[in-house]
Amino acid sequence: DKHLYYWNDFFASVSMGAGATIIATFTKAISIGVFFFLFEVFKPLRIEWLGYESFGWAWYVWIICQLLDDHNYYWYHRLSHTVRVLWAAHIVHHSSEYFNLGSGIRNGWVTVVYKELFWLWMPIVGFEPIMVATCLGIQAVWQFHLHTKSIPSMGFLEKFLNTPRQHRVHHARNYEYLDKNHGGFLNIFDRLYGSYLDLDDHVETKYGVLKPPKSFNPLVIVSHEYVNIWKDVKSAKTWKDRFMYVFGPPGWSADGST
Fold it and tell me: Phi first, then psi: what are they for 186, rounded to 5°?
């Protein structure tokens, strides 16, 4: 479908996805190992201070774990949009001006390194490491299917699930849509924390980012925002400004012009 896919852009997405998958093979293995390590190290403390060894494998624990996973994902995702150094990693996923399943695999190579840090507390408090990793996997599968315009609405499910319709808002570069709909498989945390916005069918949705990399080269796509940060840091006159160019919100500028 020519109005949905532009092949140079799609192959760039595939390249990004392949690179992320290769890196994630190692980082996720390390993350699961860290989950097990933290689970065992804190087991005596849980027994002594909290009176339990773990939460176990009951069906309701799975549900609680998945809900907490979604809450983790919300804040990981929201901070990846509001802290510039994290945005530099996440911008890769938003850099395409097309919204299709290719965007679903257009993943950053740095995000797969730091993402699981937001989940470390879960094995510490007693969630089984394999359960945490499984919930992360379920989240990833749901995220992939959100990147399509072929599902206009999911009806009643739109009330509480994050759907392709809502994710179109998230990938839009229209000013009114920026930094909205960060949820994973639910939209309840967007509604709770004030970042939910429904799609306006009467407004043309434009996809991508405000300052695109203007390249289909995966290395440029991965690095372009880090290059921009470095340029801003070099031009800054104070240490406060340098700090803000790295850890402030994307678009922050010392003179307030952006």
Answer: -115, 155
pLDDT tens per residue, the chain (258 residues)? 667 888 899 999 999 999 999 999 999 999 999 999 999 999 999 999 999 999 999 999 999 999 999 999 999 999 999 999 999 999 999 999 999 999 999 999 999 999 999 999 999 999 999 999 999 999 999 999 999 999 989 999 999 999 999 999 999 999 999 999 999 999 999 999 999 999 999 999 999 999 999 899 999 999 999 999 999 999 999 999 999 999 999 999 999 988
What DSSP line would sit under 34-74, residue for residue? HHHHHHHHTHHHIIIIIS-S---S-HHHHHHHHHHHHHHHH
Is the pTM of the predicted complex or chain greater than 0.90?
yes
Q: For residues 188 and 160, is the Cβ–Cβ distance under 8 A? A: yes
Question: Tokens for 68?
Answer: 């907490």
